[in-house]
Design a protein that fits this description.
The chain is mainly α. It has a domain of about 120 residues. The chain has a two-stranded antiparallel ribbon with strand order 1-2. The longest helix has 30 residues. One of its GO terms (cellular component) is membrane.
């Protein structure tokens, strides 16, 4: 159980540091004329992520979930996601944020993992929301937050892409929106 608390503690500290970086980047970009898109869904996203940790801790503690028999490969996947997360932050630099902050006229970042994927950080978060609960056989948490995250991304990605298409070189980089896209 000690490993569980260390892991959860480290992830929570990491998230708090990321929020601080996001606030700094937000202030920097807003001072340059950026705007926030998708404001209405952001509080729900924050609540979802906070509820994830609460649900995970409750399921593991109340139901006495032991580590998974395949905890080592799952931990390796989780640690790989942390390396990829840092790569995303380093690639986006001041453009990385937990909010959708758009700087009009900016060039869309196409370095690091963004060279190959439009939204690699969302792949990382999705993987984390599955792997962390599976490390401790918290199947309810894994299933519930897989569904909630899918819903959240179905709202967030279109809002982000719509704002990027309107205010940056997103269309030049990725082509115009297809039918049904924002």
């Amino acid at each position: 159980m000690m490993l569980f608390w260390i892991l959860i503690g480290l992830v929570i500290v990491q998230r708090l540091v990321e929020l601080r970086v996001a606030r700094r980047n937000e202030r920097l970009l807003l001072a340059k004329g950026a705007f926030e898109a998708g404001k209405s869904h952001y509080p729900y996203m924050v609540a979802m992520h906070a509820a994830f940790f609460l649900c995970l801790v409750m399921e593991v503690l109340l139901l006495h979930r032991p580590p998974s028999p395949i905890w080592l490969p799952l931990l390796a996947v989780f640690l790989a996601m942390q390396v990829l997360r840092v790569w995303c932050l380093a690639s986006l630099r001041e453009f990385w944020n937990t909010k959708i902050i758009i700087l009009p006229g900016a060039n869309v970042v196409r370095r690091g993992p963004y060279k190959w994927l439009r939204h690699p950080n969302y792949v990382i978060v999705t993987t984390e929301l599955l792997v962390l609960p599976l490390l401790y056989q918290a199947y309810f948490t894994a299933a519930l937050f897989a569904l909630l995250n899918a819903w959240m991304l179905s709202v967030r990605i279109p809002a982000e892409e719509k704002a990027l298409r309107k205010a940056t070189d997103y269309n030049e980089r990725f082509g115009p929106a297809r039918t049904g896209e924002p």
